[in-house]
Amino acid sequence: MGNICRSPLLEGWAAHRCADSPVAFTVDSAGTGGWHAGQPPDPRAVAAARRHGVDIAGQRARQLQHDDFQRFDLLLCADRDNLAAARSLAPGSAHPRIVLALEWCGVKRGGEVPDPYYGQERDFDHVCQLASEAADGLLRRLASGA
């Protein structure tokens, strides 16, 4: 996908939580498609994040790159389509580190972050809530050393 709605929200919440955490990590987001590369997040995603105290306005979309599989220890995917697309681009050794975000973060087994692009304001707020929960779960899991 294009990296202008869900991924920027997930990145924004993780970075927001990381700022107050004893666990240090680097966060970035990328789309499996490149059609939005260089663009800011969707204005509705920016507004939803802002309503919840998170600033994602400075982010710019980018496409997943081959070196991301070496650069990052973990790649969290919003849904099964992006999971499959990321794994199709990755070397086989990286596959275990490419996971569903909500599942890995302990929010919901097999859970997917719904794409709010064709939805309403409440859909972006729902994704913000999921991203907040995922960020909390990410920090808990990283702090536990898992």
From TrEMBL:
The record's section on Gene3D superfamilies has: 3.40.50.2300
The record's section on Pfam families has:
LMWPc
Task: Report what the protein is called.
Answer: protein-tyrosine-phosphatase
Q: What EC class is this? A: hydrolase
Family stated for the protein in its record: Belongs to the low molecular weight phosphotyrosine protein phosphatase family.
Protein EC: 3.1.3.48
List the top taxonomic levels of the source: Bacteria, Pseudomonadati, Pseudomonadota, Gammaproteobacteria, Lysobacterales
Taking every annotated instance into account, which residue ranges of this chain make up the domain Phosphotyrosine protein phosphatase I? 2-141
CDD domains in UniProt? LMWPTP
SUPFAM superfamilies (alphabetical): Phosphotyrosine protein phosphatases I
Q: Which UniProt keywords apply?
A: Hydrolase, Protein phosphatase
